[in-house]
Amino acid sequence: MRKIGYILCLVAFFSTQDALAQCVTYKSGTIVDETWTLSGSPYCVTGDLQVSLLTIEEGVEVLVDGHYQINVLTTITAIGSEGMPIRFSSLYPDEPDNQRWKGIKFQNTIPGTVFRHCIIEYSDDSGVTIIDSTPTFEDCVIRNNTSSGNGGGISASLAAGLTLTLDRCTISGNISNPLSSTGNYAGGGLYVLGDAELSNCLIENNEVNAQCTSASCNTYARGGGVYVNGRLQILNSEVKNNLTWARSAGPNPLNGNSFSLGAGIYLQDGNSDLTNTIISCNTTTAICNGSYCGVAFDAYPRGAGVYVNAGTPLIENTTIVNNSTQGLWHASGDSTVINSILFFNNDDGEQIRVSGGTISVSYSDVQNEYEGTGNINNHPAFLGTTCDDLIIIAGSPCIDAGDPSTQYNDACLPPSLGTTRNDMGAHGGPSACGWSGASSCVDSDGDGYGDPADPECTHPELDCNDGNPNIFPTNPNNNCDCAEPIPEGTTEGPEGDPTCGDGIDNDCDGSTDGDDSGCTTTSCSAASSTVGASPFYGGSDLAKHLLYILLPLGAIIAARVSRRKK
């Protein structure tokens, strides 16, 4: 046995030496006004670190050798690049929880800290802890962190007027309460007491565990991906594959209730806005052990997509799909859902449950129907069946089915489809322009010419009638030089009038001068509706054009016949 113990000690010793061999520069204590360079990397932290005015160059690795924390006294400027990110990690990432580093902490620090293209990983005391401070995160990855409390990835407590801001960040694989200790827990990926703004972020594969092992107690697991008690503004983001797990296991038979709530997003209270976001494949799991389960106690998995505890959330152009229980559970408050898709949640069962408060749902595609103006109940027709393909395709009933008010109009086609009327779901509406690959070319009739003169259009010329695919600048019989709107009664003629020989389509009907079939009085809107019968003329215009040719010819023939009779 002594030999085995000795061998294990040697293995541990040499493993430590191998890890330390990675280090180029060692740091601990207080660091003031320093710049950490790539040539000095990796920087190994060998004790608790206090930093002030620290600048870190791209590509630098900061590896923490032990259960230590990086405390920010003033500011950190950590700006990496896509190809050379800055990495904060444990020197021993494979060590069990409670033996790795303790993350980065801000407490009442001054504004000015910027993390850009940074990776923060393998902390066992939250990746980042924020108290009344406002560091900004751009293009960062916060992954594989844990917390024995709330907020595996980020734990933030913010005073009124302060906002946590994350742009283009990924928060993944973080866990709150990884050891399933007794208690209530929240925010596997992100836990915020206060306000948070997230744009173009990915929140995935995060987890909350909660358990009660005492007699007659209730246990709550909330917000596997995101927990916010304040205002959450989330835009052009994805929240998917997150988990809340709750288990009551008191002494038999005196156990308790277990509540697993809001695996994707849990909104405790506040005026939140969920816009152009996809919330999918999140799972609420609740277990009740004991003889009284189903009698005095039970397991309650609820609202795997979004759980609204209170407040006045607005859910707009959001896709909530494939979540294990209801897509939306509404416990209290006053919420609004508009231009959204809620489908395939809860094993195709109930999509929205209102247990309290009021909720208004309109112009949305809700499986099994839901009362409200403009709501439909049709298969959305997504690109695929997985949570990576939840964008509607051509032919979807959600295209041009959202609220017709111009304030909701689609502004970028793609990702929106059809005309400028709002598309239901995460890829419709004016804010869909924030999705990757969005084009500012608005081509309502799909002829390649956009409503605006935009270089992103197939043909950057201005389309003079984007309601009709047969009227466009290169149409041989349409000069597109008429001013819009055309006054009622505007004509092309009559024949002999200068307007019948000026080369201008004065009445905006797709034909100029003599090709205008007698220059019939018309309005722009009426003429535009008839042009579609032919690339050059509407059906009635063609008849008039033939009449325009045949009438003079008939007159000539009649004159000749008359001379012969004489």
Topology:
Layout: H1 2-20, E1 25-32, E2 35-36, E3 43-52, E4 54-56, E5 61-64, E6 70-72, E7 76-79, E8 86-90, E9 104-107, E10 114-116, E11 118-121, E12 128-131, E13 136-138, E14 141-143, E15 146-147, E16 154-157, E17 163-167, E18 170-172, E19 175-176, E20 185-186, E21 190-193, E22 195-199, E23 202-204, E24 207-212, E25 219-222, E26 226-229, E27 232-235, E28 238-240, E29 243-248, E30 258-261, E31 265-269, E32 273-275, E33 278-280, E34 283-288, E35 299-302, E36 306-308, E37 314-316, E38 319-321, E39 328-330, E40 334-338, E41 341-343, E42 352-354, E43 358-362, E44 365-366, H2 524-530, H3 539-565
Parallel strand pairs: 1-3, 2-4, 3-5, 3-6, 4-7, 5-8, 6-9, 7-10, 8-11, 9-12, 10-13, 11-14, 12-16, 13-17, 14-18, 15-19, 16-21, 17-22, 18-23, 19-24, 20-25, 21-26, 22-27, 23-28, 24-29, 25-30, 26-31, 27-32, 28-33, 29-34, 30-35, 31-36, 32-37, 33-38, 36-39, 37-40, 38-41, 39-42, 40-43, 41-44
Which bin fits the share of residues in helices?
Answer: under 10%
Quaternary class: single chain
User: How many distinct beta strands?
Assistant: 44
- Number of helical regions: 3
Q: Which sheet architecture does the biggest sheet show? A: 23 strands, parallel
Distance between the termini: 139 Å
What structural class do you assign from the helix and strand content? mainly beta
Strand fraction equals 25-35%
Provide the residue-averaged pLDDT: 84
What general form does the structure show? flat
List low-pLDDT spans.
Answer: 1-17, 520-566
